[in-house]
Amino acid sequence: MIVLDTSALLFWTLDPSELSQNAQQAIEQADRILISSISVWEIALKVKCQKLVIPLTITDYVERLLRLEDLEILAVDVQNWLDNLDLPWEHRDPVDRTIVALAARFNCPLVTSDGVIADYYPDTIW
Prior knowledge:
By secondary structure, the chain is an alpha/beta fold. Helices cover 54% and strands 12% of the residues.
């Protein structure tokens, strides 16, 4: 089982050539791939604000995600918010904090190219 951050999710689903070899291998070998629903929100917000362009509508993108067999989109529940708040990490980005809290909750690797996350969360893959 692995967790993907938002960038890793976008690379995996839209431009796999952007993934590192280690990240690609981890995704291929994972029996479960988890993402936080906050990643869907982050992508949609960036598309809406024109900070991100994807080759399909956000609705079509999400429908495509829902059809991926090994992918599970987990809602941000109360426990995830509490875990987020309990992180002894000064990072202010609520999306990053929520994704790290999810990986920590399941005690699994986090696929991310984000060096700030990698400096904090020891079980990262890139």
